[in-house]
UniProtKB/TrEMBL annotation:
It holds the Pfam family S1. CDD domains: KH-II_NusA_rpt1 (cd02134), KH-II_NusA_rpt2 (cd22529), S1_NusA (cd04455). InterPro entries: KH_dom, KH_dom-like_a/b, KH_NusA_2nd, KH_sf_prok-type, NA-bd_OB-fold, NusA_N_sf, S1_domain, TF_NusA. GO terms for molecular function: DNA-binding transcription factor activity; RNA binding. Its main location: cytoplasm. PANTHER family: TRANSCRIPTION TERMINATION FACTOR NUSA (PTHR22648), TRANSCRIPTION TERMINATION_ANTITERMINATION PROTEIN NUSA (PTHR22648:SF0). It is found in: Cytoplasm. The gene is nusA. This is Transcription termination/antitermination protein NusA.
Length: 412
């Protein structure tokens, strides 16, 4: 029975995928030789013959024929009388080879051999998974949601390997059930407690880049290059693209006819808004494109300080900044310049007043809320309608009405 169990383990080992023949033979021989060393004190006089095609093996022991009286080590030597029982032609000094059957090892030795073999199989499987997925870092993989925990999701690939999608690597609006198919990019592979840990991500810019490669053949073929990607997962992303062929419009190719190409990416990313921007070495033009959809009047650039002063019409300021400052923050990350937004100077009969001047009448957190939408003076606020202020801020209607009353009183 123990012999059959060992053969079963051997067959299981033989069926392992992606294990080269030389490695398999070497590991199996090492396991057998370790048992021989424990059993006989040495393995040097043994030949281990493995037949991976049939899933079986043979062990042969080589011993020197000595006179009966000179026998000192039964493992390395065989007495002449014993040798002649095998073959009457044997003489002293010759070498006798006889097969050692597994059953002669004893039940405990067979059990140890089986355990060692199983452990080496498991170790090889782990190393194999690690090697395979190490080469897949940066690639998209598809798997099935197997288990959902508070901090991570366990995903199984087609081979049944376990992959982890941590909460921090999930898009905030992601929602999965057990059995759902999931796509993500492999961001890192590490050995933890001697087990390969494969970490996936749906928030990495690399995931968005790979989705573009899948959806846009021109990117996959190298006609269009993605220069840089910045994103706030699930909210907004900006992608700078460049074409090496003047006949190819990089933005048009990425968006597709009536948005056919980009719609699939947007759906995968839970309706994340994606701005595709034509890359240029002209910094002013690049900043202008990065702040889309706002229309810019002029730009002053400080290359040493990596800062850009952008001037816009009052009605364009909120578009440039975006909800919660998202648009301007992503534009800064994309261009590598800290962008400061200013309103164009307009001629006014009356002087304007900075919001800080009203701190004795209006609480600071309300003033901060107004500044967040690009308003830093009283006239900036008054230039927006009541409905616009309610829509763009998190302030109550009563608060907006009181603020407008205070500002209007100031200029009466």
């Amino acid at each position: 029975m123990d012999n059959l169990n060992l053969i079963d383990t051997f067959s299981e080992f033989k069926e392992l995928k992606n294990i080269d023949r030389a490695t398999m033979m070497s590991v199996l021989e090492d396991v057998f030789r370790s048992v021989l060393q424990k059993q006989f004190g040495t393995d040097e006089n043994f030949d281990v013959i493995i037949n991976p095609d049939k899933g079986d093996f043979e062990i042969w022991r080589n011993r020197e024929v000595v006179e009966d009286a000179d026998l000192t080590d039964p493992n390395l030597q065989i007495s002449l009388s014993e040798a002649k029982k095998i073959d009457t032609d044997y003489e002293v000094g010759e070498e006798v080879s006889d097969e050692v059957k597994l059953i002669h090892f004893g039940r405990r030795a067979i059990l140890n051999l089986r355990q060692n073999l199983a452990a080496r199989i498991l170790e090889l499987e782990k190393d194999n998974i690690y090697t395979i997925y190490k080469s897949k870092v940066g690639d998209i993989v598809t798997g099935e949601v197997y288990q959902i925990w508070k901090r991570e999701i366990l995903v199984l690939d087609d081979e049944g390997n376990e992959l982890l999608l941590p909460k921090a690597e999930q898009i905030p609006s992601d929602f999965f059930r057990k059995g759902d198919t999931i796509r993500a990019v492999v961001v890192r592979v590490e050995m933890k407690n001697n087990n390969p840990q494969i970490i996936l991500s749906r928030t990495s810019p690399v995931f968005l880049e790979r989705l573009f490669e899948l959806e846009v053949p021109e990117i996959f073929d190298g006609l269009i290059t993605i220069k840089k990607i910045v994103r706030v997962p699930g909210e907004r992303a900006k992608v700078a693209v460049e074409s090496y062929d003047e006949r190819v419009d990089p933005v048009g190719a990425c968006v597709g006819m009536k948005g056919s190409r980009i719609h699939g990416i947007v759906r995968e990313l839970r309706n994340e808004n994606i701005d595709v921007i034509n890359y240029t070495n002209n910094l002013q033009l690049f900043i202008q494109r990065a702040l889309n959809p706002a229309k810019i009047s002029s730009i002053k650039i400080n290359e040493e300080g990596k800062r850009a002063e952008v001037y816009l019409k009052p009605e364009e300021v909120s578009l440039a900044i975006g909800k919660g400052g998202l648009n301007i923050r992503l534009a800064s990350q994309l261009t590598g310049y800290e962008i400061d937004v200013y309103r164009d100077q307009v001629e006014e009969d009356d002087e304007d007043v900075n919001l800080e001047e009203f701190s004795d009448e209006i609480e600071d957190w309300i003033l901060d809320e107004l500044k967040a939408i690009g308003c830093d003076t009283a006239r900036n606020v008054l230039s927006l309608s009541r409905e616009e202020l309610i829509k763009r801020t998190d302030l109550e209607e009563e608060t907006i009405d009181e603020v407008l009353r205070i500002f209007r009183t100031e200029f009466e």
